[in-house]
Design goal:
The protein is rod-shaped. The longest helix is centred in the first third of the chain and has 57 residues, at 43-99. The protein is of the alpha+beta class and 461 residues long. The protein has helices at residues 2-29, 43-99, 102-111, 147-164, 187-223, 226-260, 265-292, 304-316, 345-362, 401-405, 422-433, and strands spanning 119-122, 136-137, 168-171, 177-183, 300-303, 325-331, 340-343, 367-375, 387-394, 437-444, 448-456.
C-alpha cells in the first residue's frame, strides 16, 4: 500500500513538475512580440550615454557663453556710442554758453533729438536747474506732481546716475565748472544687458521641464514592465522547482530502498516529504508575492527578526555550491529586544531573499561570508530614532561607481542571464510600500558590498 502511495505521489509530482517547467520555459522565452526586446544595459551603453550627455552640456555651455559674450560686446559698443554723443552734446552746450553763437544753437537743435537716453543738466553743486522740462532729456513727470516732488525725484535720479557714470563737466572760458550733465543708459542698452540671462533662464526652464517629463515617462514605463515581471517570475520559480526535482530524485532512490528493506520506509520518507512540502509552499508564496505587486499591500505588525531568521534558514540550505562554500552569519542585538515593524511579511521576505541571492552570486572566492546585522534603537533612542536598520554585507567582487549609480534602475544588470529587476522591485517594495529606505551603504571593487535597509518601527506599544 505504501509503495502504491509513493508511486502515485511521484507520478503527480512529476506531472506537476512538467507543467511548472513548461510554464517556466514559456515565461523565460516571453511573448513572441517583435517590438519587445530585452532591456539589459551594458557598461558600454552607459558610457556612451554619459559621453552624449557631456557633449550636450558642453555645447549648451558654449552657446550660452557665446551669447553672453556677443551681447556684452554689443552693449559695450552702444554704451561707447552714447558716451560719445553725450560728450558731443556737452561740448555744444559749453560752446553755446561761452559764445552764444548761432552755429552752436543750430547744432544743439540738431543733436538733442538724437539723444534717446535720460540726461539731467545741473548747476555746479549738482542741483537740478529750473525749469525742469528744459534742462532734462527723456525724463517725464506725472501731471499731478508738484515742483517739490519733481525736484526730489530728479535729485534721486542724479544720485543714481552719479553712481553709474561720472558726470560730464561744462566749463566757462576761465575753466570754472558751471554745469554738470548726468546721464544713464538708454532702455535698449539696459534690456540688452539682461536679455541673454533671460534667454538662458527660459531655455534652462524648458530643458528642466523636458527632463522632468522624460523622467516621469520613464517611471511610468518602468511601472509597466510586464514582460520583465513574467521573466522574473520564471526566475523566482526556478529555485523551488530545481529543489523539488532534487527531492523527487531522492524519493526515487528511497523507493528502490523500500523494495529491499520495507520496514524502514517511514524514516526514509519523512525528510524528503517535509522538504518537498516546504518547497511547494514556497511556490505558493512566490505566486502570492507577485500578486501583491501593483496594488497596495496590507501592512501588519510583525517581529522583524523572525522574518529575517526564517529567510536566512531557507536561503542557507539552498545556496548553490559549485566549488565554493558560503556562510550566512546573522547578528542580532543583545539582549534580544522586541522589534515590531508594520510590514507585509511575504514582500519583505522576498527583498531579503533577493539581496541574499545577489550577495551569494557576487562571491567568487572559495569561502564566502554574508553578514546580516539587525540594529534596533535602544529604549532611550526610540523616541527620536524610530527606525530599525538591516545591513547585508558580502565579501564579493563589489561594484564600480557606475554600477552603484544604476544598481536600483529597472533593466540594469551585469549578469549574463539577468533582467535587472530584483533590486528595482526591492526598492519599490521598501520605499513605496513600507515607507522605508534601501541604499548601498558602501562598496568597492574586490572588497564586497553592503546594502542597508531602514524601516520605521511600529507606533503601537
Amino acid at each position: 500500500m505504501r509503495l502504491r502511495t509513493a508511486f502515485i505521489l511521484i507520478n503527480r509530482c512529476e506531472r506537476g513538475m512538467s507543467l511548472l517547467e513548461n510554464i517556466r520555459r514559456i515565461l523565460r522565452r516571453g511573448w513572441q512580440q517583435p517590438q519587445i526586446k530585452r532591456t539589459r544595459w551594458s557598461e558600454r551603453h552607459i558610457i556612451q550615454r554619459r559621453i552624449i550627455t557631456i557633449a550636450f552640456a558642453v555645447v549648451a555651455i558654449a552657446i550660452s557663453v557665446g551669447v553672453l559674450v556677443y551681447t556684452q560686446l554689443l552693449v559695450s559698443s552702444l554704451i561707447k556710442r552714447e558716451q560719445r554723443l553725450v560728450q558731443f552734446y556737452a561740448s555744444i552746450l559749453e560752446s553755446f554758453a561761452n559764445t552764444n553763437s548761432i552755429e552752436s544753437l543750430f547744432l544743439l537743435d540738431r543733436v538733442t533729438p538724437t539723444i534717446d537716453f535720460p540726461c539731467i543738466i545741473t548747476d555746479s553743486t549738482s542741483n537740478p536747474l529750473e525749469p525742469y522740462d528744459q534742462f532734462t532729456l527723456n525724463i517725464t513727470f506725472p501731471n499731478q506732481w508738484d515742483m517739490t516732488r519733481r525736484r526730489n525725484h530728479l535729485q534721486q535720479l542724479i544720485a543714481e546716475m552719479g553712481q553709474e557714470y561720472h558726470p560730464i563737466e561744462i566749463r566757462d572760458q576761465s575753466g570754472r565748472v558751471i554745469n554738470y550733465i548726468y546721464y544713464t543708459n538708454s532702455w535698449i542698452v539696459k534690456r540688452l544687458r539682461i536679455l541673454p540671462y533671460a534667454e538662458i533662464t527660459i531655455v534652462a526652464l524648458f530643458i528642466a521641464a523636458g527632463y522632468i517629463a522624460l523622467r516621469m515617462q520613464r517611471r511610468r514605463d518602468e511601472s509597466l514592465i510586464w514582460v520583465g515581471m513574467a521573466k522574473e517570475t520564471a526566475h523566482q520559480l526556478g529555485t523551488p522547482i530545481s529543489s523539488m526535482l532534487g527531492w523527487l530524485e531522492i524519493l526515487h532512490d528511497q523507493l528502490r530502498s523500500l523494495r529491499s528493506a520495507p520496514g524502514q520506509d517511514q524514516q526514509l520518507w519523512q525528510q524528503p516529504l517535509e522538504e518537498l512540502e516546504h518547497d511547494i509552499n514556497r511556490l505558493s508564496s512566490v505566486a502570492q508575492r507577485f500578486s501583491l505587486i501593483g496594488s497596495q499591500p496590507k501592512l501588519q505588525p510583525h517581529e522583524l527578526t523572525a522574518i529575517v531568521e526564517e529567510t536566512v534558514a531557507y536561503v542557507q540550505s539552498r545556496l548553490p555550491k559549485h566549488g565554493k562554500r558560503i556562510t550566512i552569519k546573522l547578528s542580532l542585538p543583545e539582549p534580544r529586544m522586541p522589534c515590531i515593524v508594520p510590514v507585509n511579511a511575504e514582500l519583505l521576505s522576498w527583498v531579503f531573499e533577493n539581496l541574499l541571492k545577489n550577495a551569494a552570486e557576487a562571491i567568487e572566492a572559495p569561502n564566502g561570508t554574508i553578514n546580516i546585522t539587525v540594529s534596533i534603537p535602544t529604549e532611550g533612542q526610540r523616541k527620536s530614532e524610530r527606525i530599525v536598520r538591516i545591513t547585508i554585507a558580502d565579501n564579493g567582487r563589489g561594484m564600480s561607481a557606475t554600477q552603484r549609480r544604476y544598481a536600483f534602475t529597472a533593466g540594469y544588470t551585469t549578469k549574463e542571464r539577468g533582467w535587472g529587476l530584483g533590486l528595482s522591485l526591492s526598492k519599490r517594495i521598501i520605499e513605496e510600500y513600507h515607507r522605508g529606505k534601501i541604499y548601498i551603504l558602501r562598496t568597492a571593487l574586490n572588497r564586497g558590498t553592503t546594502v542597508a535597509i531602514e524601516l520605521p518601527l511600529s507606533t503601537e506599544p
